[in-house]
Write a structure and sequence with these properties.
The chain is an alpha+beta fold. It has 9 helices and 6 strands, in the order αβαβαββαβααβααα. Helix content is 67%, strand content 11%.
Length: 297
């Protein structure tokens, strides 16, 4: 059974549009939950000896907040996992305030083990945010340049639109899940760019090869033939990658959750966009040109 990509392109475009709209709506109304790396502040991860929930913990923190304003209910973020592991994020504290907080938490909440304590200045957080945005933009520009040289600008344009599609959906998915956006998340997004563009370039190469050998008479036939020839390879590669990522997600622990979840979304969406979005976009951009003039750079 052969997939008719060009004939069904409107369905694929509609599906992609729906996903992008949902992602953008999530980003607009729910927003991104920036982590400590970008906002600055303190993070404490502790394991209490006894099980504790938010109902017991919040009154304790409210009491401490009377002396430590950074623990005000509107400033702090608290997560409880595995029954007794608690993550508390606060605005930036001095070392003296931090020591007082840890002491009072032990007195009022009970004995605990400090698993993690991080501090990032607000200025460093803003710098990291700017650097992350620059890294993404530079990555996209390099990809455009590479594909323009290797293929044509229209191929590059189709690829970048597909990459924006992947990144927006991945970021929207993380925002929808409420996960924190941190530096590992940026690394995951850059990995998605590389993975998705690799799959897209394989397809572009096949399209160019079919066009050069004149195996078909129309551009739509060339794209359909190329997609179907590379489909099995794309699915097998993505499936094996998916299994590896899924295994790490299940057994890798909480510290890798954001990174791996982002990769998981990106691999699935990137595979879809390479096959069902990038190739129909080439048809829309090149359909009015003569077949012999396409793909000969």
């Amino acid at each position: 059974m052969k997939i008719k990509i060009i004939e069904n392109r409107k369905k694929f475009f509609t599906f992609s549009t729906i996903l992008v709209v949902i992602a953008l709506a999530t980003l607009m109304f729910k927003g991104i939950n920036y982590g400590l790396d970008f906002t600055g502040g303190n993070l404490f991860q502790v394991r209490f000896e006894k099980s504790i929930g938010l109902k017991e913990l919040n009154p304790i923190l409210d009491e401490i907040a009377k002396r430590i304003p950074q623990l005000d209910n509107n400033s702090r973020k608290v997560q409880v996992s595995d029954g007794n592991v608690v993550i508390i994020r606060t605005p930036e504290m001095s070392e003296n305030v931090k020591k007082n907080f840890m002491k009072e938490l032990k007195e009022k909440g009970g004995e605990y083990d400090l698993l993690r304590s991080d501090k990032v200045g607000a200025s460093i957080g803003e710098e990291l945010k700017s650097t992350a945005i620059i890294a993404l933009l530079v990555g996209l520009l390099l990809i455009v340049g590479y594909i323009t040289i290797r293929f044509e600008f229209k191929f590059a344009l189709a690829a970048v639109i597909a990459l924006f599609h992947d990144v927006i959906i991945a970021v929207g998915g993380i925002a929808l899940l409420g996960y924190e956006v941190n530096t590992p998340f940026i690394a995951a997004v850059l990995t998605i760019l590389g993975y998705s563009i690799n799959d897209t370039i394989v397809l572009f190469d096949r399209i160019r090869e079919v066009l050069r050998k004149k195996k078909v008479s129309t551009l739509s036939e060339a794209i359909d033939l190329s997609v179907n020839q590379t489909l099995t390879r794309s699915i097998n590669t993505s499936f094996t990658t998916f299994l590896a990522i899924l295994a790490i997600l299940i057994f890798g622990g909480a510290s890798l959750k954001v990174f791996i979840t982002t990769l998981l979304i990106g691999v699935l969406v990137g595979t879809y966009s390479s096959i069902f979005l990038a190739s129909p976009l080439i048809y829309l951009l090149d359909k009015d040109e003569k077949l012999e003039d396409i793909g000969h750079n």
